[in-house]
């Protein structure tokens, strides 16, 4: 485990752009993100499909080199050379949402979990390491699962095998992309409880990528809400989800079953990341602007024309919104 006293992982000014088709403008999938994850902290990265959260997560894993900014881990800048990345990926492991797609149907559970050890040239007792990982993932007694195949397991058991395959390398950070989206409701709570217990027992950090604010409430210490390539609100999960300041966060929360009041139906789809609008990037869909509240607060013009600053990556509560700033609760100055 790392002994760093600062953030375990930091993204600083991260930009990721992809070439446009047939001469079109580059798609700015991640358009200026600062994000810290502390040792032992679980951060939920939340937003609609297409907001850039999966691209950001893949970059933090070293799978997508940034076009600007950098990623640091335990105080060291991420090196994208082959040998350095191999070492890094032993310390940072990915858990995907679909366990069936993550597991080779022709490999036994034992081989699936041992694969990472073999890739990284593990020289210890392979069987003991596999058994320990399966046991920590809640598959006990582990020997009972060694020779079973994925099709012989339930969905929850398959996800536990995927988690065991990550744990066997003794990582310091897990990146979980929609880790319970494909599971039955009855099993989701068990997997979330497992991830929390792993944090408590092993000191693991985790970035949980999800569209589900209810999941964030149940598992995260801190939440970062992402829209069109940028984090627009961040802070302690209790603060952000009980008193959201950004209209986008308010809209996402309003559709949860337990939410009070009428749900906010956002108009249209998120803009094309190759044509990000000026001003606040949410203004074309913003219910506060549409209702006249922003006009009454004297910020409607700023919403349409003045760009907002990139939020800092620390743990403080922050929001990038001219309307929230007018109410004394957000960052609304024009970006430098």
TrEMBL record:
<dbReference type="InterPro" id="IPR017871">
    <property type="entry name" value="ABC_transporter-like_CS"/>
</dbReference>
<dbReference type="GO" id="GO:0005524">
    <property type="term" value="F:ATP binding"/>
</dbReference>
<comment type="similarity">
    <text>Belongs to the ABC transporter superfamily.</text>
</comment>
<dbReference type="Pfam" id="PF08352">
    <property type="entry name" value="oligo_HPY"/>
</dbReference>
<dbReference type="InterPro" id="IPR050319">
    <property type="entry name" value="ABC_transp_ATP-bind"/>
</dbReference>
<dbReference type="InterPro" id="IPR003593">
    <property type="entry name" value="AAA+_ATPase"/>
</dbReference>
<keyword id="KW-0547">Nucleotide-binding</keyword>
<feature type="domain" description="ABC transporter">
    <location>
        <begin position="9"/>
        <end position="253"/>
    </location>
</feature>
<dbReference type="Pfam" id="PF00005">
    <property type="entry name" value="ABC_tran"/>
</dbReference>
<protein>
    <submittedName>
        <fullName>ABC transporter ATP-binding protein</fullName>
    </submittedName>
</protein>
<dbReference type="InterPro" id="IPR027417">
    <property type="entry name" value="P-loop_NTPase"/>
</dbReference>
<keyword id="KW-0067">ATP-binding</keyword>
<keyword id="KW-0813">Transport</keyword>
<dbReference type="InterPro" id="IPR003439">
    <property type="entry name" value="ABC_transporter-like_ATP-bd"/>
</dbReference>
<dbReference type="InterPro" id="IPR013563">
    <property type="entry name" value="Oligopep_ABC_C"/>
</dbReference>
